[in-house]
Amino acid sequence: MAKIELKNLTKQFGDKFAVKDQNLIVNQGEFLILLGPSGCGKTTTLNCIAGLEIPSSGEIFFNNNDVTNDPPHSRNVAMVFQSALLYPHLNCKQNILMSLKKTNLSDDQKEQRISESASILNIKELMHKKPHQLSGGERQRVATAKAIVRQPDVFLLDEPMAALDAALRQTLRSELVNLQKKLNTTTVFVTHDQVEAMTMGDRIAVMNDGKVEQIGTPIEIYNKPKTKFVAGFVGSPPMNFLNGKITNKDGNYLFEVNSTMDNILLNKDMKDINNYRTLAFRPQHASIVNDNNYDLELKIYGIENLGKELIIICEYNNDKIRIITENPNYKINDLIKIKINKNKILFF
């Protein structure tokens, strides 16, 4: 397994920077998630690590060895793509064997590696089938076996579950994490799905506009987002944002919401953040109340019934505010009053 280090990595296509001055370390044996929206540079970063793209500038190191300009085959990297890249005229075993064609292994050693990878991924009964005879999940398992059979130093996955149905994605998430811990191979996983990122990674690197905005454990990213972008991108349902300013009236700190007469009473220890202009809170950190001790009165715009709970979507100040409740008795156009948990508020 390898430690990966990116130093001032930049990849430019014409006048557009796909990755700009990127610095990142992936520790040995770590499962790192590159998370971000389409076009943020995460796949380009992965392709540079694999050697499929040559950086415009900057350096890439594997275990302190500069591999920036090395061809892909010399890096001992294995990659799994969004679409399972299997030869349609070969059966599963023959597809997996293709990854070992250029090695110096004996036939017995190749057979042993194929058998081991098939056991790990539970695909032994598929070995004589061709790709068109497999389900989407089975094809991805075979593609994964094709990658790990090489016993690479680095395992790269580019949205390998994006085309699968929700139930199968949930199953494969735990399988991939279990596989990575068994192999202890340094792994970089690209996704735009924050649920995948939160449930799979040792650490998450949230990317935006060609750079990493924040890197940390899933809990750190969720509870302590450093930027408004990270706060809004990580979490489902998404974070609520109110724009305004903090004021001090008669010793009380208030958040005055723009374009409204609403003032939200803050905790006394809020005095050091009066330069911030956005108040943020997650949907589960506000409750619907029936008395006059409330922060905002909202009109219900939509309701998403998830069975165990409802997501109430409200119109407010030309924006949407989401609240989680277990009460099924609300209807669209109802007025509700909410109280925000002041200990969970974030400011940007």
Task: Summarize, please.
The protein is an alpha+beta fold. It has helices spanning 42-50, 92-97, 107-120, 136-148, 166-183, 194-200, 218-223, 228-233, and strands spanning 4-13, 16-26, 31-35, 57-62, 65-66, 77-80, 154-158, 186-191, 203-208, 211-216, 240-249, 252-257, 263-265, 278-281, 286-289, 296-305, 310-316, 319-325, 335-340, 346-347.
How far is it from the N-terminal to the C-terminal residue, by CA? Answer: 39 Å
Beta-strand proportion: 25-35%
The CATH C-level name of the largest domain is Alpha Beta
Tell me the count of domains. Answer: 2
Poorly predicted ranges: none
CATH fold descriptor of the largest domain:
Rossmann fold
> If helices are DSSP runs of H or I spanning 4 or more residues, what is the number of helices?
8
Q: How would you classify the helix and strand content by structural class?
A: alpha+beta
Report the CATH superfamily of the largest domain. Answer: P-loop containing nucleotide triphosphate hydrolases
User: What's the order of the H and E elements?
Assistant: EEEHEEEHHHEHEHEEHHEEEEEEEEEE
Average pLDDT reading: 89
Strand order of the largest sheet: 6-7-8-3-9-10
Instruction: Give the C-alpha Rg.
Output: 25 Å
**What's the main sheet like?**
6 strands, mixed
- What spatial form do the alpha-carbon principal axes imply? elongated
Query: What is the CATH architecture descriptor of the largest domain?
Result: 3-Layer(aba) Sandwich
Based on DSSP secondary structure assignment, what is the total number of beta strands? 20
Helix content: 10-25%
